[in-house]
Design brief:
single chain; alpha+beta; Gyrase A, domain 2; 4-stranded antiparallel beta sheet
Length: 187
């Protein structure tokens, strides 16, 4: 005898298997979709955090650039201030030196000799003046050259005899003076 099973068990099992596979497929799709959402959210938050860090760093860079500019300005002011201090110290030293030089010239100038103009050009002093004779000019130049410790070179650049034509002077004959220009190089 042949037994036939006419119950639809196998078909039901196949259908149940298909339903289980379909449910499994839907669950896997949902998991993949959920995983993508989680990864997207994570990377989006990380990217936003990175943008905030970059923005903050850019603000810090701008702030430090401003501070660096201010620092450069202050360094320039400091340099200018130090240059002014050096100039003041140099002028003070020059003033003291010129006072000594003028005192030395005063000691060396002969009796009938006078200075009308004094110019300083670099390390040179140009003296212009008058004297009663050529000998007085020569004596003055030699005393500056020989006895002064402030001059290393003394040159007579110009000497000329000039007649005075002043109506207020009552002298017999025409009075004459010797005008000179002496260049002294400072030590």
């Amino acid at each position: 005898m042949i037994k036939l099973n006419l119950l639809p068990i196998r078909e039901e099992q196949k259908r149940n298997k298909l339903i289980q596979q379909f449910i499994l497929f839907v669950v896997v799709i949902i998991l993949i979709f959920a995983t993508n959402i989680v990864f997207y959210q994570y990377h989006s938050d990380a990217l936003e955090t990175q943008h905030e860090i970059v923005t903050k760093l850019q603000k810090d860079i701008d702030k430090y650039k401003n501070l660096l500019g201010d620092l450069k300005k202050e360094k320039d002011k400091k340099t200018e201030f130090l240059q002014r201090i050096d100039a003041i110290n140099s002028l003070e030293a020059l003033r003291q030196n010129l006072l000594r030089v003028l005192d030395e010239m005063n000691k060396q100038i002969p009796h009938k000799t006078w200075i009308t103009e004094l110019k300083k050009q670099g390390a040179q002093i140009i003296l212009s003046g008058g004297a009663s004779s050529f000998e007085d000019v020569s004596t003055f130049a030699h005393s500056l050259k020989g006895e002064s410790k402030y001059f290393k070179k003394v040159d007579i650049k110009n000497v000329r005899l000039e007649e005075l034509k002043d109506k207020n002077i009552n002298v017999v004959g025409t009075p004459r003076i010797v005008l000179f220009e002496i260049v002294c190089t400072l030590q």
